[in-house]
Design brief:
10-stranded mixed sheet; DNA polymerase, domain 1; TIM Barrel; alpha/beta; binds iron/sulfur cluster; 20% strand
Length: 347
């Protein structure tokens, strides 16, 4: 079974060749493609418009390497964290964040098992990177959490953020492929405007996103508005300093016109003082950007702690007074370790 090929690796044209080799008409490729990427099935048995004999042929030669729900935890605030088991026994997590009053149901998905970047405040960064997910494994999270959203909230997801485990721009090709499967009319058909790719900041790849004409929104995990502090908590900043990032994001904005946001976790007496606020305002001057200030959730072994509400409010007030769009977000799902920076496959 293990040496069977994953049928989801084939393009539609390649599937036509597969059909030819199996002695089947070419139009079957379209049907199979539809089952895989529009309906998201992970079993050949579910492909009910194929003949039994074709389903058997497929079963004998191929697998669909889907993900399996391993554990579901529901927070008191309605956030749902799901741990998925992958075909090789690795685990990843996805989080459904419902904002019922705004009718917004966002799924935060993972793109790598662990992460190679070692942001000092992040639980995932302490796991080390095991491997990249393939496009199907990223896609499956959307399909599965969408079903979960329908079951819990009576409607499907509205937004997708690539903000779970891993750095999307370090597994660019699979992330782009998954976006294609999620957005194309032959896939789930979701609008790319509802998708946000969040990066710790890799300037070269942000430019590539622009050059490739990606229609998704971009979020930068900023977390500090000067290089000294950012170097301290995000080692990736040493090769991608703020000037390089601002230039790349400016280019992304000019080229695509897509929405840009900064994620900014407020750490106590680290990045929420007056000077930090002034530095942040400067970083918001070149292109329209929205800042999301996020409450920190303690991670074991990390000395950074959560900033007080008063300091966060004063910080946000100053930034807002300079005409920058800024919102302060309550952390979600912290009782189940589902909040930002907490994903680490814990029990
Ligand atoms: S914050 Fe993101 S990029 Fe940094 S270690 Fe965590 S998962 Fe990786």
């Amino acid at each position: 079974m293990e040496d069977k090929l994953d049928i989801r690796k084939y393009t539609k044209d390649e599937l036509k060749v597969v059909m030819q080799n199996l002695g089947e008409p070419a139009f079957r490729a379209g049907q199979i493609y539809q089952w895989l990427w529009q309906k998201g099935v992970t079993s050949f048995d579910d492909m009910s418009n194929l003949s039994k004999s074709l389903r058997e042929k497929l079963q004998n030669a191929y697998v669909i390497r889907g993900i399996v729900t391993d554990k579901v935890q529901v927070s008191e605030d309605g956030t749902i964290k799901t741990r998925f088991k992958l075909h090789d026994g690795a685990f990843i997590e996805s989080v459904l964040i419902p904002v019922t009053e705004d009718d917004r149901y966002t799924v935060c998905i993972s793109c790598q098992v662990g992460c190679s970047l070692t942001c000092s405040f992040c639980a995932t960064g302490k796991m080390k990177r095991v491997r990249n997910l393939d496009a199907g494994e990223i896609f499956d999270q959307v399909v599965e959490v969408n079903k979960q959203c329908e079951a819990f909230y009576g409607r499907g997801i509205t937004n997708i953020v690539y903000m779970g485990m891993g750095e999307p721009l370090l597994t660019y090709a699979t992330v782009v492929e998954s976006i294609d499967k999620i957005t194309s009319p032959e896939g789930l058909g979701m609008s790319p405007k509802r998708i946000t790719v969040s990066t710790a900041g890799i300037a070269k790849m942000i430019r590539k996103m622009a050059d490739d004409g990606l229609k998704v929104n971009l979020a930068l995990s900023l977390h500090a508005a000067d290089d000294v502090k950012r170097d301290e908590i995000m080692p990736i900043n040493e090769q991608n300093n703020l000037e390089a990032l601002m230039e790349a994001i400016h280019y992304f904005h000019k080229t695509t016109g897509n929405r840009i946001s900064y994620e900014y976790i407020a750490f106590d007496h680290f990045n929420e003082g007056e000077e930090d606020a002034r530095n942040l305002v400067k970083l918001c001057s070149r292109f329209p950007v929205k800042v999301n200030v996020i409450e920190y959730n303690t991670v074991e072994g990390v000395s950074l702690t959560k900033a007080s509400q008063e300091r966060v409010d004063a910080f946000a007030r100053y930034v807002r007074s300079k005409g920058v769009m800024i919102s302060v977000r309550r952390s979600r799902g912290k009782d189940i370790d589902a909040a930002c920076g907490q994903l680490a496959n814990k029990d």
